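User: Predict the complex.
Assistant: Input components as received:
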Amino acid sequence: MSTATKATERRSLHVKAILGPELYARLSTTKVLLVGAGGIGCELLKNIVLTGFGDITLLDLDTIDLSNLNRQFLFKKKDVKQSKALVAAKTASAFNPNVRITPIHANIKEAQFDVAWFRQYDIILNALDNLDARRHVNKMCMAANVPLVESGTAGYLGQVQPILKDRAECFDCVPKPTAKTFPVCTIRSTPSQPIHCIVWAKSYLIPQLFGEDEDGGELDEAEKQGENAQEIATLRKEAQAFKVVRAALRAPSDTAGSNAAKMVFQKIFHSDILNLLSMADMWRSRAPPTPLDFEDVKTGTFVLNKTSSNSNSVGGACTTTGSSSTKDAKINGANGGASGEKTLSGINGMTPAASGSTTNGGLKDQRALSLQDNLELFVSSTNRLASRLRASEDTISFDKDDDDTLDFVTAAANLRSVAYGIAGQSRWEVKEMAGNIIPAIATTNAIIAGLIVLQALHLLRKAYNSLRNVHVQFKPSMPLSAITMCPPNPDCGVCRDAYTEILCEPALATLGDVVDGILGGGHGDGTGKRDVSVYEEKRVLSDPDWDDNNGRTLESLNVTRGKFLSIVDEDGIYGTIQVAVGVLPPNHPIDGSAIIFPVPLPIPPKKAKSPSSLKRPASDDDNVEPSAKRVKTNGSAPTFSPSKKKRLEEDGLILVDDANQQLDDDDVIEID
Ligand SMILES: Nc1ncnc2c1ncn2[C@@H]1O[C@H](COP(=O)(O)OP(=O)(O)OP(=O)(O)O)[C@@H](O)[C@H]1O
Ligand SMILES: [Zn+2]
């Protein structure tokens, strides 16, 4: 026996003693899937290897970034840009010579990872950082009936949730916390905090300048609806002005394009602010903004309190009750002493490293930026983005890791902050706020990874009474709270559905054949032919009054491997049947049937509810009813031209027209 093997044996003595010989022996053949090799994933991989799990599949779609190295300790600097799954598997294999780790560099949502693939595992451990992937794995685990341990951390906070179909709540049983919301007016007209300016730059300005062109359709529509004509005229003027600067940003750099950055600046920080000032009602209870002037800022002669003289009231009063902005802010060295009295430093927003200086101390990203710094950054980042548009990119959207967009958002948000007398932010802070980043804490990840293993062991032992939802919380008196599992939410649109699977050739199987086959001919099976609607995600493929797609193949409807058909009972008597689409086995005869149906057919549970409370198949982000009254589709996903509001909402923000408006709690903040 080699020395290494002896050392491993010695080390496993403790684990064996704790787990007992039976469970310990079982672990070596237990097939575990670990999804995510990031902060939690690295800790967890180390834990399960050392616990004695012998057959691990590790899946992650990403490559290693330099910024991962502070906490994802399975990676070294030389590994940057390599696959996380491959490197983590290689590093952790050395911890136990008996472990087999199969790395997969892929997205867990890919079609190849269908229900049959999930079913091969004894347990699945999630170490993900986004809701979409979490929801996907949760649903696949419901379909495959495999236990799952879900987890997440956000700074000092963390959570572990064991999930087992029919026994405990699934990930979607409980609505997630509502996203941070801002009234539209606060973002568009009356910001009072740095975050308002950052959201404006990231979610409004970037799409306006670098996103898809707006067709003005929504204004035509608003006009038809008889909305305030004057306000619509103002918005049209604004849209027209955006068209001009958009064109300049795309024009060759030796023509109008050379001046594009200045044009954008003058439009958004001068003309638009003058327009806003003309709405006198808006500034009755709050300090008005100050228009900025490009040349004055550039030459250092800009004076902050140079207010607008235009005071025509055109209404448009905003219902938001934003606090008035403080106008005694100072511009930090902005004017090179030209006026002396106006200096806007980072004020509250300044990091210690940056305090007192614009040029020295701390990391480059953490220093406070002067007004002139911001102007320079604005011009250079606008020019960089414009040259990308001219070169090849049709549209550019914000990405915290895209330096050009981050620089642009930093500069634009800070310039707007100057206009509104709000504290400026360092690039670092803007990245954190715009990217919704909560700094990851390695210790929290480590605690959570340990708790995941404990819950996984309970699941494998079938010690269901020992399962707990565990929270790591910021309470010194009780840093951990363990909550007894709740039964599934009877209204959950994911785990209360009946899951089944067909194996088929999607190019031959028709929608009608699949649905008829699943419903079956009579009692004791799929409960027979009845009025149903059929969906794929949010697409309606058929309903009792519309069967145009029934003769079409699944392939032509884009319902292929890894996807689900949801069969919803229109009378509200039975629960929804979720039909997972899988592939025919390799030995299936060429002249065999195009569809293999499950035996026995699924029996959807009877619902206690009235037809009026019909629930659509769960989806991740809207509250549309399930019935066939939704957008019908011939197979391709419906396309929208999202309004500005919608786009802002897609950024994770719910925009309300009025600060008092009630919100649905369907939207969620992700924790990572
Ligand atoms: N759909 C997915 N399929 C596979 N892996 C995924 C998927 N979504 C997220 N992941 C992986 O989950 C891991 C989450 O880890 P973590 O929260 O530490 O994120 P990170 O990207 O490493 O760090 P940061 O976001 O702070 O830069 C990441 O490695 C990410 O690539
Ligand atoms: Zn559920």
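The chain is about 35% helix and 10% strand.
Let me know if you want any component modeled separately.
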